[in-house]
Amino acid sequence: MRRPGWPSRFWVAFAVAIVKPISWLLVKKDWRHSDRLPRSGGIIMVTNHLSWLDPILVAHFLYNHGRWPVILAKSGLFSVPLVGSLVRALQAIPVYRGSTDAARSLEESRRRLAAGACVMFYPEGTCTRDPDFWPMEGKTGAARLALATGATVIPVAHWGAQEILPYGARRPRLLPRKTFHVQTGPPVDLSKYAGHEGEPVSADVLREATADIMAAITAQLAEIRGEKAPETPFKRPSDN
């Protein structure tokens, strides 16, 4: 019997055969507080974005702790020959940006959560442009979904992928071997926004809830780095 949110056994084996060797080869692991990650039930996992490599490394972390990441991917990928078939098979959800179909990804995410999946969000929507690699302001999709469903939001911060493949770089820096740090935080407390399940949520509430989610991710990253995070998050570029 297929577990909620997981692909078929064939596609799980296919992905694991590719991802795990790459992950073990590229990085040493520093995974902290993984006991905070629920092993079952629908959850929204939110994380920072530093490099095009980190989805692979975060996926390895989740898989090793009993969760399959249902990733929201750009809709354009689904029309690319072979790639589109692959991302569908791996249970990714298409994101339709800047169109009347934008709500479809959230509705599909809602359905997956109800079935017990781990839906993985990058609230920033793109790799951070903060010069010091702190999380930027987030988009409201994860907050909207959480408030609409009451699903648990788990913040996960990571650090190290940008040392291997910086944003915009074409070639990875493989040596010396880097450490990929991951830290799971406690659930984000969104109780002050309770009562919105099934109801329209104001833009102000969505922004406040999103700020709380981003603050939770940033707090975990600050612990990993042993540094104090900026008081005000970097303002995201207008074109993203």
UniProtKB/TrEMBL annotation:
The keyword Acyltransferase applies. Keywords: Acyltransferase, Membrane, Transferase, Transmembrane, Transmembrane helix. Residues 43-161 form the Phospholipid/glycerol acyltransferase domain. InterPro entries: Plipid/glycerol_acylTrfase (IPR002123). It comes from the Bacteria. The chain crosses the membrane at residues 6-27. GO terms for molecular function: acyltransferase activity. It holds the Pfam family Acyltransferase. Coiled coil: none annotated. The keyword Transmembrane applies. This is Lysophospholipid acyltransferase family protein. The lineage of its organism: Bacteria, Bacillati, Actinomycetota, Actinomycetes, Streptosporangiales.
